[in-house]
Structures are given as C-alpha cells and as structure tokens.
Amino acid sequence: MFSVKNPKVLVSILNWNGGDDTIGCLISLFKSDYKSFSVVVIDNASTDHSPEKIQEFFPQVTLIRNAENLGFAKAQNQGIQHAIEQGFEYVWILNNDTIIDSRALGLLVEVLDSDTSTGAVSPILLDAEVSNTNRIQFCGSSINWKYRYFEQHKSLEVGLKAQAEIPENFCLWGTALLVRTFILKQVGGFDDKLFAYFEDMDLSIRIIRAGFYNRIAESAIVFHAGVNDPNNRPPHYVYFNTRNRYLFWMNHLPWYQQLSYTRQYLAGAIVLASSWHDIGDCQRETATLLGIWDALRRRGGKWNDNRNLPKWVSTVLLTHPYIFVNILKGNVFLLVRQALRRFYAPLRKS
Q1: How far apart are CA 75 and CA 12, in angstroms?
Q2: Which pLDDT band holds residue 344 (cuts at 50, 70, 90)?
Q3: What percentage of the chain exceeds 70 in pLDDT?
Q4: C-beta neighbour count of 299 within 10 angstroms
Q5: Do 53 and 179 reside in the same domain of the chain?
Q6: Contact present, 96 and 13 (Cβ < 8 Å)
Q7: Residue 169: CATH number of its domain
Q8: Closest Cα to residue 39, out of 64, 17, 20, 21?
Q9: Alpha-carbon distance 223 to 101, whole Å?
C-alpha cells in the first residue's frame, strides 16, 4: 500500500490551553498504520499545565514552548522550519481538536507519492460532534476570482468534480494538511501577518502558483470538532475574519481590481457591523470596526481585546449605514431618488 521508501513525515500540532484535545489527538495519531512519522507539539504559552501533561504521556514528542501566543500561522511555521532543518520529506499540519482514522496518514502519503504534480493533500473532514459521524465538514474549497469568494464543498461528489475540472482554483483547509517540505521551503510557510484564519487559503494559492495542485484524498478520514455558528463565535474570531478577508484578497488580486474589491469589502463589512449594532452586541460591533480599520491600514498580528475606536466612528458609520453601502456600491442615483421621495412626500399629502 505504501511507497517502498516510506517518506518521513513530521506531524506538527499546535496547542493552546487544549490539553485534553491534544492528548486525544495524539492517542489516535499513534494508532496510525503508517509508522514513519515524528511529532512536534508547539505550545502557545498555555496556562492550563497542558504542556507538562503532554510531555508526561508522550515523552517521544518534541515540545516547543513559546513565551507568548504567536497565533496559528507563526507557531505552525516553527513546526515547518523544524521539518526543513531535520530533513523530513512531508509535513502534516494537524489541528489538535482532531481524531485520526488509523489509515488516514498512510492514504495521504500515498496520494502525494503517486503524483508529483500534487503539492498538498487533505483528508475528508467529518464532524466529530454529531451523532451522524458521516456528516462532511470539509472536502475542498474553490476560489471564485470573478466574484471574490470561496465556495466550500460539503458533498464529496461536488468536491471531486471541482478538483478535476478547475484544479487551479482548488484550495484546502489547514486542519489536516499534508504538504511537501521542499514546496514550503520554496514558497514559505503561512503568512505570519494573518495570525489565524485565511492563512491556509493563502498557502493553497501560493502552492498553485508554484506549479502544483491541491487535492483531497477521498478515502482518508479525519474527525474534526464541529465548526460553530459564526454568529456565536467570540469577538476575536469576528476581528480576524473581517481583517484577514481583506488582507487575503489584497495579497492575490491584481492591482487594477483592488479598488473595486475595497468598495465591495467595505460595503459588506459595514453591513456586518450594523447587524451587531442593531442587536446591541457592542463587542462584536467593535471587533468588526477594528477589523475594517486594521485591514485598510494593512496591519496584521494578534487581537487586543482592550482596544477601542472613538465612539464617533460607530455613530457616523452605523446610524445610517446604507447611505455608505449604496455609495460604495455606486448606487448614488438610488440615494438621490430616495431623498427626493422623502422631500416630496409631505407635499403630496398637502
């Protein structure tokens, strides 16, 4: 089943106050049929004593302890650098909230071994938190350059079709991503500026532009903790998602499309901030506005929950948000027509 040479794989797992999840992931990982792998756990300044527990239960694991939370991108880059320095052929970037099917790693290696044009491969991700464990959480995404969004495939049939028909637009999550080390050395790892979220899509695009393709291994299965409703995500998620969406597209759109995308982005982001404002969710409203502010300044890095914008910013933008949205969308004529209707309405009544 496996290649004769059994390429060496470094499994890179990030831990941040998630000891129980990480230990559960490692227990399942070490039951893998494929044995030619080593593990590095990068700890982002956990305060729950999980690094000590991990080291106690798994002394064979290399543990890198950071003095501060470096985020997903920068911390996983430490694992990637370790793989490069130690001569590993493949890196498996793996979330700690996953449970590994025993055949998964071997099947992923087999896909990379069988096709030199494949740069990265992902298993099918199934939702681990529902009774029906066959519910697909992820089996590839396709980037739509025309309308500037990602279509996430939830059907294996649709995902495989997209992979076959438009491979140059096919992207992968970083949840359980197996990548050739030499490609990471060539294109670089994750973009540190993104900290967390969109860093995997950014890497997928760079892999494609380096002349390789991303694929899903349809027989490889990894169970992943459920993806919650975005409306219930914490403020830092809202901030990163708002900010990094813009940074991602600015990294990859040609210069002559960047102005039109900026207008599109601002219109959508103001509507999002307005939705939080309308239900009185001040934290997420502020997170969205800060995300917009930092995005336009091209500022990356971590989330600081002590930051605030002046009150007038919210007042100006969100009292009548659709004025700005219509201006950004070029609907000035619509605004004028609405103003005229309001002006003439009293006259008609009289």
Answers
A1: 10
A2: low
A3: 91
A4: 12
A5: yes
A6: yes
A7: 3.90.550.10
A8: 64
A9: 8
How far, in Å, CA of 62 to CA of 55, rounded?
Answer: 8
How much is the CA Rg of the chain, to the nearest whole Å?
23
Nearest by Cα to 244 from 283, 309, 208, 298: 298
d(CA 279, CA 285) in angstroms, rounded, equals 10
For residue 99, the surrounding DSSP H or E stretch is: strand 98-100
- 205 plus 110 within the same structural domain: yes
8 A C-beta contact, residue 150 and residue 171:
yes
pLDDT of residue 284: 95
User: Is the predicted pLDDT of residue 221 greater than 80, yes or no?
Assistant: yes
Residue 228 pLDDT level (bands cut at 50, 70, 90): low
pTM, 2 dp: 0.91
Q: Check whether residue 110 and residue 211 sit in a common domain.
A: yes
Nearest 5°: the CA angle 189, 98, 283 is 75
Are 163 and 198 within one domain?
yes
Q: Tell me how many domains the chain contains.
A: 2
Contact 122, 214 (CB under 8 A): yes
Residue at a domain's end among 211, 227, 243: 227
Confidence at residue 132, expressed as pLDDT on a 0 to 100 scale: 54
Identify whether 2 is part of a domain.
no
In a domain, residue 236? The reply is: yes
Q: Which of 148, 138, 332, 288 is nearest to 224 (CA)?
A: 138
Residues 74 and 142 occupy one common structural domain? yes
Beta-carbon neighbour count of residue 116 at 10 Å? Answer: 9
User: Do 236 and 207 share a structural domain?
Assistant: no
**Count of Cβ atoms closer than 10 Å to residue 322 Cβ:** 16
Task: Give the residue from 192, 227, 262 where a domain finishes.
Answer: 227
In a domain, 79, yes or no: yes
